[in-house]
Amino acid sequence: MEEGFEITAGVHFDAAHWLPGYPGPCARMHGHRWRVEAAVAGTQLDEKGILLDFLELKGWLQETVAAFDHRCLNEVEPFTERPPTSENLARHVYGELARRIGEAAGKVRLSWVSVSESPETRVVYRET
Predict the structure, then answer these.
(1) What pLDDT, on the 0 to 100 scale, is given for residue 1?
(2) What is the pLDDT confidence band of residue 102, given thresholds at 50, 70 and 90?
(3) Pick from 2, 29, 103, 121: CA 20 to 30 A from residue 42's CA?
């Protein structure tokens, strides 16, 4: 079995949204403190013994979600075209991070992205 490492970093942002067509109170505008986490995996450590600096991964996450902070997600791309669910947010962040990691790191791959809109809930998105 090959040795491997996975590191995780997370950020949060505050934003409102509503879910069009949802049969309950989430159809009305409401807010969350969203938590977004991402994990990258790889096998090759650098000369300092690091797979990828946590601060670098956290920075990529912060840049990716910055446009959503203190906004109504329904009014921000790509959620003007699709519902701003946790699932769609996780898929969007995954796509943006995958591009950044592909361009910048080369030695790691994105494993998954998770989105939580409360401490009791979480969705995980990964591509196989």
Answers:
(1) 59
(2) confident
(3) 121
Reported as a pLDDT band with limits 50, 70 and 90, residue 107 is confident
Q: Could you give all domains of the chain from N- to C-terminal order, each with its CATH number? A: 5-125 (3.30.479.10)
1 or 31, greater pLDDT? 31
Q: Using alpha carbons, list the distances in angstroms from residue 69 to 13, 49, 76, 106.
A: 5, 34, 10, 29
Return all residues near 41 (Cβ < 8 A) that are at least 6 apart. Answer: 4, 5, 6, 108, 109, 111
Closest CA to 127 of 96, 94, 78: 94
Residue 104: pLDDT above 90?
no
CB 82 within 8 A of CB 88: yes
H or E element at residue 16: strand 5-17
Edge-to-edge, what's the strand order for the sheet holding 71-72? 71-72, 5-17, 30-42, 109-118, 121-125
CA distances (Å), origin 124, targets 5, 10, 103: 19, 13, 23
Cis peptide before 78 (omega within 30 of 0): yes
